[in-house]
Each structure stands twice: as structure tokens, then as C-alpha cells.
Records
---
Amino acid sequence: MLKVADVIEKAWESGVAIPAFNIPYLPMMEPVVQAVVEADSFALIDTARPEWIKFESKGLAAVAAEFAKWRQPAYVRLHLDHVPVIDEDQQRVDVLPIFKEAIALGYESVMIDGSRLPLDENIKATRQVVELAHAADIPVEAELGAVMGHEAGPLPPYEELYASGKGFTDVREAGRFVRETECDWLSVAVGNIHGAIAAGRKDQKKVEARLNLNRLEQLHSATCIPLVLHGGSGIKQESVREAMKRGIAKINVATEIRQPYEATLKETKSVAKAQQAVYERTTWIVNEYLGIAGIRKMVGGVNQ
Ligand SMILES: [Zn+2]
């Protein structure tokens, strides 16, 4: 069976990006898979630690079991998203047992998020996970720079943040980070931000983010590996399309499908209607926003 590392590599070489859809509620799985299959596209299905702590994905095993119910390996694979060493509430997390569990459950790629640590500690923490995951032939995504928004406190105004370049991934640090950790993919901060997940703020509409494409290009030449764009909801479409030509091979999408699910469920009390909303939004993302319908054969996700 084709490996996820090869799919991302092919997307990277072809100048397209594979979306990774987050599943904070288990009933979102079915409509996301259905939309990806119908568009003859390819996607990763993500769960992140904040989603089983703050939402209702219930944990690694529950997401893997739901994924197995709708299993379509030619179209979708399971990815472990953000496992932060320091979490969004500034608590230290014992991360290695989480990675061991994910690998044992069949997650095919993983992300270690040491971005709240100083550089040397981020390198050290990432390196440990790379050793563990590579021993199981699993690719590792890491993060350098600060993709803000998950934290509980209010964000500074977006334009201020963008203009200051605060938290943007540093080009020289990125080169060193990739060499020393040997991570496979790198999540970078170039103007992208996460949707809010803190209680009381998670319904907020995301601001429309822009990307510093120049910085992205420099990061791409300094690292020479597939780059990942977090906070993929609500970025200007032309920025996203341009980013795909500058090394972005994976785009995380969470808020864009979570909010329609929550809003529809709240309004109609119907899980089926909420699932329909997720299906429609995912179809729009794949077909219109990212323009990656029909790419499955190109990136190698073929039936075996
Ligand atoms: Zn993220």
C-alpha cells in the first residue's frame, strides 16, 4: 500500500496540497470521507490532543475506530495532529506515550508540536519523536514558529500581528531545525493563525489571514522538505493557491468544517443535518477553495 510520506512528496513535487481535516466530533468523519471520495481527491483525517481534551473526539482509539468504519485507504488516511509539549493552557504534556499509542493504533503519520519551547528544547523534543516514529516507518511533522490562536487569551489585532511578523518562522532556525531533527514535514508560521478553540470564543468568526509568500519561499529553500500550513480556514484563496507553489504540501482545515457542524446542530438538533453541513463545506473546500478534485491518481492514492 502506498505510504502517506509518498503521497505528500508527490503533492509537494506537483505543487498541490493535501488537506488534513480535523474531527473534533466523531459524526464529522462520515461526511468528510464521503466528500473526499466523491471528489476523487485525497485527504488526511486529523485528530489533535485539544480535540479530545476540549471537544468530543474522545481520544485516539475512538477516532481510529470511527475511521475504520468508513475505511477508504485509497482516499483517506489517519494522521495524529498537534501533540503539544506545552499545551494551549501552558501545561507540560507527557507526549511519548501518546505517540506510542497512536502508532500502535495504526495512525500513519504524526505531529509533535514543540513550538512553545525555546529552539534547542523544541529540537530535542522533536528528535525524540522522530526516533520513535521512524523506527515504525512513520513520518513526523514538527512545528517551528508560533501559529497562534489556540491559546485562551485574546490575540492582538491581526494586522498588527502580521505587520510585526511576531512568531513568524525564522529562516535560519528552520534550516538548522530540519537538519538536526530530521523531521519529514514542517509546519510554519507566515501569517496563518488557528481558529479559536477556547471556551466562549470557539464560535468566533476567524479573521481573513494573509500569507507572507516571500518568507514562505525562503523557508522552502532553507529546508527543502514539504511544508505544512496550519490554520487553513479563512485564508485568502489566492494566498493558499500561491502557497502550494512554494512548498506547502499539506493544509490543515479545522474551523471551516467544525463551525458549520456546531451551528447546524445547535439550530436543528439534528446530527444528520449537521453532517450534511460538513459534507457541503468539505466538498466546497476540495473543489473550489483548494481546487484539488480528481488529484487522487496524481498523488498516488490508487486502489491496490
Ligand atoms: Zn494546527
Note: Residues 82, 147, 194, 230, 252 surround zinc ion (CB under 6 Å).
---
Amino acid sequence: MVAFAASWREKDGIGMTSPPLRFGLVGTGYWARVAHAPALASASAAGVELAAVWGRNPQAAARLAADFGAAAPEGIDAFLAAVDGVAFAVPPDVQAPIAAVAARAGKHLLLEKPVAISEAEADDLVDAVTQGQVASVVFFTLSFRAEIRAWLADVTARGGWTGGAGSWFGSSLLESSPFNTPWRRENGALWDIAPHVVALLWAALGPVTSVTADAGPADVSHLILHHQGGASSPVTVTQSAGEQAAGFEAFVWGGAGRSAAPAVPDDPLPPLRTTLAELAGNIRAGQTGHPCDVRFGRNVGRVLAEAQRQIDRRRRAGERA
Ligand SMILES: NC(=O)c1ccc[n+]([C@@H]2O[C@H](COP(=O)([O-])OP(=O)(O)OC[C@H]3O[C@@H](n4cnc5c(N)ncnc54)[C@H](OP(=O)(O)O)[C@@H]3O)[C@@H](O)[C@H]2O)c1
């Protein structure tokens, strides 16, 4: 990896004399088709190409690969041999072990949130990235949106906030939603959309040092994030809000007033292209760290895991009462 990055650094421009970074995509479902495949296939400006697709259904992999001009090698070993980096669009408990194998084989990682459900698998993935000396980025969508980055730059420069708040009311558990997938039904908004809000408030108010959590009705989770330095921020997430109530809000507040995060468009391609460009830049520079790398993804996951434990404990206590 280091040798590859060094040889890239010697070149004087992207795509002139150096080959593009070959990315493979793991997953052939809705999110792979509408987000990762089009982002990877249109990232030549970042010196990236979509070289290969792999999924557990070979026919689906062949179809997606053909639609985006990529190969569909049979078997994960042949797939990994054909790429420099791997992007993931599969459930987190599927992503984590495959990503660990890929990292140990020296492949750079574009991961989805949450990086894993199990803390042990998240820790193993961090170990694999360290051992493989590969670059990693987790697609916390909000953190890669230009509007949100401008807001974060402003609020972190001003500082002095007493607290914040965030809510994301989604409707992915409606029958009609393409996101009504088994892992979401099982793990809910706590694991699906809380990662975005936790990552955002972490960036705005400082590292989350502890969490207090409880559940509401249906798929409703309430978290209170306690940040290093003393700020606190309540978060409510649900995927069972219904379309009329759907929406995302976040703000920070203090003696200087209140600052709300801007509304953001739905289109995932601009922030995903930014993610890819930053990952490719790190690969070429021989750098493995990023503010949203696998370690940050693991740390956000630890907050969710602790919240899940508290929610489960309260549910069990409620059932006993
Ligand atoms: N950052 C964001 O804003 C954002 C938005 C949406 C989704 N995501 C992330 O993208 C990931 C996938 O999203 P999704 O749930 O909506 O899934 P999805 O797009 O429906 O795709 C699921 C894919 O995973 C495959 N899969 C499922 N179980 C598998 C298993 N046990 N072994 C191998 N492959 C398996 C499916 O294969 P089959 O087709 O054969 O079932 C399908 O290819 C999740 O991590 C999610 O958090 C992120």
C-alpha cells in the first residue's frame, strides 16, 4: 500500500500517467444501485473507477456490474484480487466481517454506517484496518454535505455552546419504502439514523463521553449525549414516524443564542462523491486517518451499543413490573 501511494505521489496529475484506483462494490440492492454504483462510476475526476461488483446473488451482481460497465468476478477472493478499494452497501453485520478480510488483504474501505452492530466485530474491523495499513472512511452522509460542513465550521469556530439537540423522524419502516430491509426492521432507527445525528452533534459539541437512553413507542429511541467539556444534547430518532411527520432537525444553543443546522437535500450522490474523493486523496497521500474513519465509526457504534443496553434493560424491567 505504501509503495502504491508513493508511486502515485510521484505523478503530476490524476489520470494522466497513473492508473485510476479500482474500486469494488459489495452489495447489489437498492442503495448500491441508486447511490454507490453511480457515485463510483462517475468519480473519474477523483481518479477512481468502478471495477467490480460482488453480491451473494451472482445474477444480481452481473446485472448491476453490466449496467455500470464493471466486472462481476465469481467469489469474494477473485473480487478482492481485482480491486484496490471496496465500497459497501450491505447490512452492517454483513459489512463488518467482509471489510475486515478486505482490509487485511490491503484494500482501502468506503464503509457504511453503522460500521457493525456487534462491538467485537467493530473492534476487529479497526484492528484489520490497522494491520492492513489501509485508508477508511465511513459515509456519515450529513458529515459530507457541503451545507452541513459550512454550518459545522461556523459553530465550532464560535464555540461556547451549552448544548444541542437533534431529531430525525424517518419512514423507512413503511411497507412501501425501499429501505424497509430486514436489518432495519430488527435494529431500528437507533442503528440506522442515530449514527448520522450522533456523528453530527459529536462534531458540533465535542466527543461523546457517555449516553443516557430510553425508548418510546414503536421504533422511537431517545438518547441524551453527554459531551466532553460539559455540553449535553438530546436526540430522538424513529423510522416509524409516517411521511407527514418525517424530517431532520438539529441545533446548538448557549448564551450567544441558537444556531440551527441547515435543511439538506435528499440526493446522496454529492456527499458520496465527496467521501470518495477524500478517501482517494488519502490513499494517494499514504494517509489512513480521516475525521470519519473506521475508528470514529467504531466510537459512534459504542455510543449506540451502550444506548441499546440501557433500552433493553429498561424494557426488561418494564416487563417485570
Ligand atoms: N449513508 C446513508 O445515508 C445510507 C442510506 C441508505 C442505506 N445506507 C446503508 O447501506 C447499507 C445497506 O442498506 P439497506 O439496508 O437499505 O440494504 P439494501 O440496499 O436493500 O441492500 C442490501 C444488500 O445486502 C445484501 N445482503 C443482505 N443480507 C445479506 C447477507 N446475509 N449476506 C450477503 N449479502 C446480504 C442484499 O442481497 P440480496 O439482494 O441478495 O438480498 C443486498 O444486496 C446499510 O449499511 C445502510 O445503513 C446508508
Note: The first helix runs from residue 2 to 9.
